[in-house]
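#onboarding

Welcome to the new folks! Below is a worked example of what a typical request in this channel looks like: someone posts a single protein sequence, and someone else replies with the predicted structure as tokens. Don't worry about understanding the tokens yet, we'll cover that in week two.

Example request:
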Amino acid sequence: MSKRPSGMELAKQPGTIILPGERMANIGDSADAGQAVIRIGSGVTQKSSELLASKAGYMRYEASRNKLWVESNQKRYVPALEDPIIGIVQDRFGEEYRLDINGSDTATLSMLAFQGATKKNRPNLGAGALVYCRVVRASKNMEAEVSCIEPGSTKSWSGGETLYGELQGGTVVQVSLGMARKLLREDRVLKMVGNVPFQSAVGVNGRIWIEAGNCEHTMLLSLALQKADVMRADEWQEFVKQLWSQSKK
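Example response:
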């Protein structure tokens, strides 16, 4: 995470292709007044007052969170601060869970890193449990750390109304990292999947959780999302129509 003045200048338009070493933005003098915060995501490195690309891909910028990153077709997820991800509990060590996050390494989750959790009142997760969480520490030299606490929220994990926490029921669909980020940017894609109510959670690590109330609808939604990753938009829309029409027979 890096400080920047409100007048940060992007060197390229978001969505354009960028190569390693190319300048993405100038963040000026971090000592200036009127500082804001820019979140540096995957594929971005800082050199003095400049943000440079460290890998090839599409330049992305999310104004609402002041987040800058490079989107590529990599298969393995690289943790970045504030990324929402879906982890799978592998084991428990003392007061921490170790999660598979679809990366080259695992991540740790404190047993108290849940909204309103205490030593006497906290989730008890078993191996294989799905957890929707956010990255709070990301380093090349250390294991990533995640949390299920949403800043500013007063809801408790025990009420089942928190944004982050254990995902119960449903199923997980594995998609490309690019598709996962697209689903976060354009929720209309999820809305087009079907005409039944469902719950979903999108992790930028390529995992999508879907729960539609019954197994048939959940499986149909999962299949539609998998196909969205490999079909053209027009082909996919036609496929979704046929999928739901056949399910009603």
